[in-house]
# Entry
Amino acid sequence: MKEADFEQRYAALWQRLEAVLDAGGKVPPPDERFPEHYRQVCGHLSTARQRDYSDALVNRLNRLVMLGHHRLYQRDSRASLQRLAEALAAFVTAVRRQRRYVICSALLFVVPALVMGVGAWLSESFAYSILSPAQAAELESMYDPGNDRLGAERDSETDLAMFGFYISHNIGIAFKAFAGGVFLGLGTVAVVLFNGLYLGAVTGYLTRAGLGITFYPFVIGHGAFELTAIVICGAAGLMIGHSLIHPGRWRRLEALRQAAAEAVKLMYGATFMLFVAAFVEAFWSSSSQLPVAVKLSVGALLWLFVLWFCFFSSLEARRESR
# Structure
């Protein structure tokens, strides 16, 4: 096909795309076939190059392809961000709507942690009611101030590998806390309670051993996301358990379905928080090169941010106003 015939055949399509791309803003409804037209122009550019058409034509098509690529993926990016914002808003709304379950889960976690923490700090034998001597020795090794990296033993593993390990570990705890709700909530209570006791035992033991200088800077950063997420997963499990014990005017299956629909919103947000926690733990918390004051300060700010985001941010109001 001659260049003149090629241009004549597709000129209308190129002019249409040029009008859309040069106008700026969103693609109007008549051009919802924009992705398909963009792919056609990509093919035209390839053909023009293969047939050695004029530089003017190749440059025109190349410009269309570049602008189209930017518009197409910019639109996809905006849509993804919008969906993420909507999901986070639904999560925040669910957390506040189900605050009684969140409070119950928090008490199940925090109170045992405080009791065990104080007891383990006052008496080493108290810590051994949860920790074995081997676990205690491993903890001392993990938080030795002389280590290059703090936290779980990693041998030659990279931070990225540890990121994957932390995700697997965190998601495992979250799933147990949530799934335990099907056992009339008793499984959830057991998981949240044990994790609170274990955290308290570790905290009290390491404080008594004089390793708080490495332990607290390590845990405070990712703890804001991880511990809050565990509590929220526990709240989701308690919702499931309560719907089975007290279905109200609904049949148990229907009550369970309704509770699960709300609990899943909590789990989505909590899972996202656990991914963030794993990232912070692998790439920030484990570093022994950062000053203690910096890690404590950043950790405190992260705690304030998480609490503000879950309980005081305006995301819920924006979502309900739509």
Residues 98-320 form one domain. Residues 213 and 292 are 8 Å apart (CA to CA). Residues 25-30 have pLDDT under 50 and may be disordered.
